[in-house]
Amino acid sequence: MRLDARSRVRPEYVRICVDALDERLQAGVVGGAQVARPERETLVARGIGRALRNRWFTGLSRYRRATISGPSDTVWMGTFRADELRSLGGWDPRVALNEDFDLNRRYRDAGWVVWFEASLRSQYVPRATLRALALQYFRFGRVKGTWWARGQPPNARQLLLLVAPFVSARLLWRLGRRFGSVQVALVAGAALAGLDQLGQEDSPTSPDERVVAVVAACTSSAAWFAGVATGMAGERLGVEH
Questions:
Q1: Whether pLDDT at 80 is above 90
Q2: I need a labelling partner for 42 at 20 to 30 A (CA). Which of 4, 16, 235, 239 fits?
Q3: Residue 57 phi/psi, 5° resolution?
Q4: What are phi and psi of 31, to 5 degrees?
């Protein structure tokens, strides 16, 4: 089993994972949902936690948004049968981040199912500052960009993430020429606020926390894209990260 340092799992976590592997012999990996809950009660920490609980702000991964069990491209952390894990080479020491995605890809390529178990909802302790959040997502993006530059293609979900900002920017530019930048900024702000509300299962919270959540979502997204560009450029230019 893999457990992250920032994870907080329930006492029955191991039993549920082992039972799921026993019941689904075609599954090589079992993992559950990540629910971001800050340990610090500051406004920024609460806002970051809210942003990372939003299904629209976090890359559309099943483990961040789904409530129904089923096959997935990746899951958080993961439980594995030891013999199968060894037969696939185990963890790749060359992968410094996103090790779970790399390993789950190898399982899927080998014909195994990566199974998302919805009854597993574990707490994740997010970064407590916007600077730390930006650095984390920049590193995530840099690893993705390096992989893609090496010829590993992004999946459909990742392609959508890559294309969406350019489509949105083009649309906002055209609207700005027609209606003015102030009106477009108001529309964009309202859209982000709407996504913040639609993507939440939580009860309503303070306006200040919602504003921080939107800022955190924009921060992590921008940092991730900067990381992708850096990773791809660095790989093409032969620059060591």
A1: yes
A2: 4
A3: -95, 0
A4: -150, 175
